[in-house]
Design goal:
Blueprint: H1 2-21, E1 30-34, H2 40-48, E2 53-56, H3 59-68, E3 76-79, H4 88-94, E4 97-101, H5 104-114, E5 121-126, H6 143-151, E6 156-162, H7 171-188, E7 194-196, H8 203-208, E8 213-216, H9 218-221
Bound molecules: pyridoxal-5'-phosphate.
Pyridoxal-5'-phosphate binds at residues 34, 36, 57, 80, 164, 199-201, 215-219.
Amino acid sequence: MDDLASRLAAVDARIADAARAAGRDPASLTRIVVTKFHPAALVAQLHRLGVRDVGENRQQELTGKTAELATLTDLRWHFIGQAQTKKARAIRAAASVVHSLDRDRLADALERAGEDTDAVLDVLLQVNLTQDPDRGGVAPAQLERLAEHTAGCRTLRVRGIMAVAPLDEEPAAAFARLAGFAQRLRTVVPDADWISAGMTADFGEAIAAGATHLRIGSAITGPRPVHD
Ligand SMILES: *Cc1c(COP(=O)(O)O)cnc(C)c1O
């Protein structure tokens, strides 16, 4: 617990430094702690330390942890992983925000899953910064089209854009391109001003490039348990 608290404090200090260096208000940033592969007990510890935004990348794990921690009603669960259309209903039931909307069919499935409620789900459009179509994310050339389609979904609210920096490129260069895509998104949805970018290895560069939502895992949680 002490280690967790000190790692969290150290990361938050680095976030604040990077924000000030970029002339930005640290309070304008949302730090999401990515808890994938860690047990629900770790999320509960983080909650005791004041964390309210956590990220998961697998639907089953998200569903399980949200059920286990249902009493922590002020936790916001961010879904950040590649999503199968058939899992849309379960994702929608558990997540406050979906960062990884990358195709029309997923928008339609999330929309159908919300049809019976008045609730609106916050979504971000994930853009693929690599040339590899197997990485999640819409191809940049399709961004405006996907934005128009998703903006037409009554129960979804497009809040911004999300990306993962490629492994084989300087993160600063990749995040500069992402900032350009964020501007393009705002030509379709003017108030979609969230930029979800920055992980353990590159959150400083992401903050410098305008990220508003940081997804930080291992720097805070420690190494992830081994998984399949
Ligand atoms: C795991 C993951 C993160 C966090 O990664 P760390 O390097 O542990 O900070 C962020 N974003 C996505 C999409 C992830 O899957």
